[in-house]
Amino acid sequence: MPNAPLSEYEAAAQVGISPTLLRFFASRNAKKGEKRKLAVANKTDDTYYFDETELKDYDTWLRKPWPADKGKRPYLPAPIRDEIKREANLECALCHKSGEAGEAAHIRDVATSKNNHPHNLIWMCANHHTKLDNGSFGPKGADNKDILALKHGLQLFSKHIWLGQAQISKQIAAMLTLCDEMQKQLAISQSSAAVKAIEALGTRALTLIPELASHSKTKEVRATLRKLTLKIASGKAASGLTTAQRLVDAVSFKEEFLEKSGLKLCPLCEGAKAHNGYDCPLCHADGSIDADLIVDLREFELITCQLCEGSGRHEAEDCPVCHGERKLERRFADQTDFREYEFVDCPLCEGSGSWEGEECRECRGEKRMPKGLADQVDLRGYKYVDCPLCEGSGLFHGEECPECGGERTMLSKYAYEVDVTKYDERECRLCNGSSNYHGEDCPACGGQGHMTSEQSEATDFASFAMVNCPKCKGRGHIHGEDCRVCGGGRKIQRRFAERSDDY
Which of 132, 172, 198, 402 is the most buried (most CB within 10 A)? Predict the structure, then answer.
C-alpha cells in the first residue's frame, strides 16, 4: 500500500525546507534554465500535500550542481535567500547583528559546489561572511565545524516549529541531542564569536525543553521531565552556572528519557542526525527511533559503485549512478539495474549519427546512448502521418496550415501533440458575433465576429469594457474644450484608460 501524502508541514520537517519554500518550488523553476518543479500530490483547503518519494527525489536533485554561466555564480532565487534569513531570525547567525544588511553565505564554497540548496547557505553579516570565505574560522579548505554546528542547530529549531506538537517525545530527544552537540562544541571552539553564538543557541535549546515538556502527556516520562525541567530551569538557581554547565545537566537526562519514552538512539547516525552528509534516512534527522524498531544497517553501508568500479567516471563523465562519489549505499545499489547504463547503438539512426540527412534527433549525433534511454525511444513517433489540422491538404481556412507550415505531413510524435480544438471557431464574446462594438469594428475579433478558441481564451475581454475617461472624469471636456483623451465621448475602453497617464 502506498504511503499517504505528507502535509506541507510534515514535508517541511522531512527535508528541512519550509512550507513557504516548498510552495515556491512547486510553482516555479528553482534552477535557472531548468524546467523541473516539485510535483504536488494533492491540494485541499489551501493546504499542499506531497508524495514522499517525489519530495526526496526533488531534494536530491536540488543538492546537485546548479547551472551557471561561465565565470558566474548560479542564480539564487529570492525565496531561498528569504528562507535562510528567517531561519537565522533576521540576524547574522554568528554575531546576531546586521540582519537586514546580511548576506547569504555558502557553507561549501559555491565555486566548487555550485550548490544553492538552502542547507548549504547561512545568513551572515558581511564581516563574518568574508571570514567564512577566507577560512578564518579554521584551516582554509577544511569543513568549518562551528558553522556546520550552527546551521544544524538552526535547522532543528525550524523543524520543531513545522512539526508543531507532533511527536513531542522525539522533539525533546532531539533537543537533548542538540544540547549534547553544543556542550561538546563549546569545549573545542576557540573563536570568541563562535562561542557566543553557540552559547546563544544552547540557551535557546535550554529554554525550549521545558516548553516542550509542558505539552507532553506521556505518563512514563512525566517524572523524568519534571526533574529535567527543575534541573535546567533559569532564574536564581541557575544564575551561578555557565551555559556549558547547564547543557551538561540537560544531557545527563538523555538516556533516562530515551528509555522511558520508548525511544533509542538512532543506530545509523548514533544521534548525530546526519549520515554520509545528508539527513539520516533512518531517523529522519531526529537522532532517535522507536525502541522496538528492528533495523538492518547493512543496507546503509557504502560499497564500491559497480558501474564505474570505484573510479567515479563512466564514459568520460561523472558516473551517473554514484555521481562521481565512487561509492554508494548498498540499498541504492540493490535497486539499480546497471545494465541500463551500458552504451548501445542509437535505435533511431542505428549507430550512424544521422537521420534523414540531419543530425539524429535522439542521440544528437553521438551514435550511441545508455541502454536505459535507448529502451525509451519510441520509433513509432518517427513515422510521417497527415497533419491532423489540415488533414494533409497543407491549407487551413485558405491559408498555409499553421501546424505543418504547409508541408502536409509531420512526424507522428508531433502530430500526437497537436490540439485541433484550439482552432475551433467561436462567436466573439465582446460583440456577440455582430462584428460591431460601439459603432466601430469590434477590437477583439477585428470585425470578424468570430475567433478561434485559443484566441478567445487568450483575450482579456474585460480590457475592452467602456469606462469613464480618467482624464476628464467622464465629463467629455476640460477647460471648455473636448478632452483630448476621449475626444469628448466621455468614455473609453479600459485598456486605454489604464494608459491615460501617457497622454
Answer: 172
